[in-house]
Design brief:
Organism: Paenibacillus eucommiae
Largest sheet: 5 strands, mixed
Structural class: alpha/beta
Helix content: 25-40%
Protein name: Aldouronate transport system substrate-binding protein
Strand content: 5-15%
Keywords: Cell membrane, Lipoprotein, Membrane, Palmitate, Signal
Pfam family, one: SBP_bac_1
């Protein structure tokens, strides 16, 4: 699959950060402990309720993965830039102060001025003023800015024991996320260590179904029948609503066993172009039927957050939608303010395939070190420390006995939050923890890893949710990029236009052969050849 754009990755991680739910009473499992806050627990910093780094010059910081602390002999300042919330405490906070105490590295953090940092970083590179550490980077961004501006991480693995272990356990990183010169410039985001196993799927109004004696649907036929019944009971409703606009096509198509662009079909070993497949045609026919019968929002293909909220937060206007499961708790809590009986439940994927593409274990997204830094070794090892058990606890939870406590029953409590649910957002704004770029892995007990009872319903339902293999992420030569980019742009534009017309009934699916000829005239077969040529190289690595 194509690498996600930086803007998409930033949006995804922001969404995850905004909506990550800390569990107030989650049952402890092998990897996930309860996360609550205890009212009345006094911080160990004394009368001042604001946590401060523990004062211990000879403290045992736990398992550092073989990395010796402190990293620097003398106190050394490092400049860093990353994405943060507007009211996050920078340049210093609890996290940076504790990190300095452990490593002798005084981290001074500044935030990007825009969500997409490409232009700002370009100016910093051009002026030779790049900070020592740069957050929210990707291999493609590094290549765009110039690899010479960054440190090739793979050439320093002898001093990076924790990241070397990451590469040993995830060999796909060096196959997929290196730049064209074969070097790795980004410390990657270990999503499988941070996010739950399955994140996206269908959610449905459980209270509405139970009120009307309707079972949660499974498969396209049952969804259709359920939507018909709901439309009969609530004639002013649109049972199927949408948050993602036209991007919904790439989410729904997977459960039909296809995709709205290039992909490797489940169980196959070659790239194909999804929008000319019979499965894609079947999906369009199905969605067109829902649209024609008033079973989905008439603005379905353009509907995004505002319209979605205007429907889902009503008592009886919209009942099912594709979305991020991590949002269930917060969305349900918001809706209950107006609709007390409102309750969501996860449902099976809509399409006949019943499964979707495997979510990537590792994202080509993370943090890099400037080659112009006067402290390259120290900056690299600071990041390496954050991959260690000790460092991952610090960056996601803080310090035991100061920011959090582990109770006898395994419950994690955060004294300064006085009984509130603890999320990534609160942890960053209070302590500077879980900050984008610096959290590349997580303590399994931490809030980002916490599973709420509502999310546990997802895991219980979708036990086998994925196609067999992750979509391969490949390198393309500059010549291949110059040929594939205009082809992809033209094809995607045509796919969105055609799909919208068929769904809305302004173009007949009976002209499918004309659609196939149009894609061929644009050059989809050339694109398939480009992908499979790159895939052959990928498999030979």
């Amino acid at each position: 699959m194509k690498k996600m754009s930086l803007k998409v990755k930033l949006s995804l991680l922001l969404l995850l950060a905004v909506m990550s739910i800390g569990a107030a009473c989650t049952q402890k499992t092998n990897e996930d402990a309860k996360v609550t806050s205890s009212p009345g627990v006094v911080s160990e910093t004394g009368g001042d309720s604001t946590a401060q780094p523990a004062d211990s010059s000879s403290a045992d910081y736990g398992d550092t993965g073989g990395l010796a602390l402190p990293i620097a002999k003398d106190e050394t300042e490092l400049r860093a830039i990353t994405y943060t919330y507007a009211d996050s405490p920078i340049p210093e906070n609890f996290f940076t102060k504790e990190l300095a105490k452990r490593t002798n590295l005084d981290l001074q953090i500044q935030r990007f001025k825009a969500t997409d940092p490409t232009e700002e970083l370009g100016l910093l590179v051009a002026s030779n003023n790049l900070p020592d550490i740069v957050g929210t980077t990707t291999s493609s961004l590094v290549s765009k800015l110039g690899v010479e501006a960054f440190v090739p991480i793979n050439k320093y693995l002898d001093i990076l024991p924790n990241f070397k272990k990451v590469l040993d356990e995830n060999p796909q990183i060096m196959k997929s996320n290196t730049s064209s010169d074969g070097n790795l410039y980004v410390f990657d985001y270990l999503s499988y260590k941070i996010s739950p196993r399955v994140n996206y799927g269908i959610m449905i109004r459980k209270d509405i179904l139970e009120k009307n004696g309707i079972a949660v649907p499974k498969g396209p036929d049952q969804y259709y029948e359920v939507f018909k019944k709901l439309k009969q009971i609530y004639p002013d409703s649109y049972p199927f609503i949408n948050y993602y606009g036209a991007d919904i096509l790439q989410l729904l198509s997977q459960s039909w066993g296809t995709f709205n662009k290039m992909f490797v079909p489940d169980g196959k070993d070659a790239w194909e172009y999804g929008p000319v497949s019979n499965e894609y045609k079947d999906m369009l026919v199905y969605l067109a039927k829902l649209y024609k019968e008033g079973l989905m929002d008439p603005e379905f293909m353009t509907s995004k957050e505002d319209r979605f909220n205007s429907q889902v937060l009503q008592a009886d206007k919209g009942f099912a939608f594709q979305g991020w499961f991590g949002r269930m708790d917060s969305l349900q809590n918001t809706a209950k303010e107006k609709v007390p009986e409102f309750e969501l439940a996860p449902a099976d994927f809509m399409g006949p395939k019943g499964k979707v593409m495997a979510e990537p274990k590792v994202l080509d997204y993370g943090i890099s070190v400037s080659s112009s830094s006067k402290h390259v070794k120290e900056a690299l090892q600071l990041i390496d420390y954050l991959y260690s058990p000790s460092g991952s606890t610090l960056v996601t939870m803080g310090v035991e006995g100061v920011t959090f406590h582990e109770e006898a029953d395994g419950t994690i409590t955060y004294p300064e939050f006085q009984g509130q649910a603890v999320t990534r957002v609160e942890l960053e704004k209070k302590y500077g923890l879980t900050m984008t770029g610096f959290m590349e892995t997580a303590d399994p007990r931490s809030a980002p890893r916490a599973i709420t009872p509502k999310f546990q319903e997802v895991l219980d339902l979708l036990k086998d949710p994925f196609w067999e293999e992750e979509q391969p992420v490949m390198h393309f030569t500059e010549e291949e990029v110059s040929r594939k980019t205009p082809l992809e742009d033209a094809l995607l534009k045509a796919v969105l236009e055609y799909s919208t017309k068929v769904i809305m009934g302004t173009e007949s699916i009976e002209k499918w052969d004309e659609w196939l000829k149009k894609n061929e005239s644009i050059g989809y077969k050339k694109l398939v050849d480009i992908y499979n040529t790159a895939y052959t190289r990928y498999k030979e690595q």
